[in-house]
């Protein structure tokens, strides 16, 4: 269920993801790979929204910092619903790419 209070952070996340998505589009990846990364970003957004519910203090942080804090060189957060190891590996692959992109781009500041 969508809560009205989740719309602003969701929109801010989309703005954080747009430069990364543009970068992926310019990387000559296959349509299948692009869809995989898009779907994993959607998953990441859902995990971050869940984190905002669990830790309301995060709502006071700039969204770019919330996104960057959810990532590291190993990947992203654990998928909260019964994900297979393969799903988690795929998700972590996208999260590592996003983390590297944000780190290199200064987007985590």
Fold and architecture overview:
By secondary structure, the protein is mostly helical. It has one domain. Helix content is 65%, strand content 0%. The protein contains four helices and no strands. Helix 1 runs antiparallel to helix 2 and helix 2 packs across helix 4. The longest helix has 24 residues. The chain starts with 6 loop residues before the first helix and ends with a helix. 19% of the residues are buried.
Note the main attributes of this structure.
globular, 109 residues, single chain
How would you sum up this structure in a few lines?
By secondary structure, the protein is mainly α. The protein has one domain (9-17, 29-105).
Order of helices and strands: HHHH
> Could you say which structural class the secondary elements and strand pairing correspond to?
mainly alpha
**Binned strand content:** under 5%
- Counting H and I runs of at least 4 residues, what is the number of helices? 4
List the helices and strands and how they pair.
Elements lengths: L6 H19 L5 H24 L8 H7 L15 H21 L4
């Amino acid at each position: 269920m969508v809560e009205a209070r989740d719309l602003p952070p969701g929109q801010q996340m989309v703005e954080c993801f747009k430069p990364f998505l543009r970068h992926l589009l310019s990387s000559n990846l296959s349509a299948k790979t692009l869809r995989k990364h898009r779907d994993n970003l959607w998953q990441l957004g859902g995990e971050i929204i869940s984190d905002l519910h669990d830790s309301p203090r995060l709502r006071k942080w700039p969204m770019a910092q919330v996104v960057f804090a959810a990532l590291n060189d190993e990947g992203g957060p654990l998928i909260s619903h019964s994900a297979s190891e393969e799903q988690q590996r795929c998700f972590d692959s996208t999260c590592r790419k996003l983390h590297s992109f944000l780190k290199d781009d200064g987007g985590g500041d």
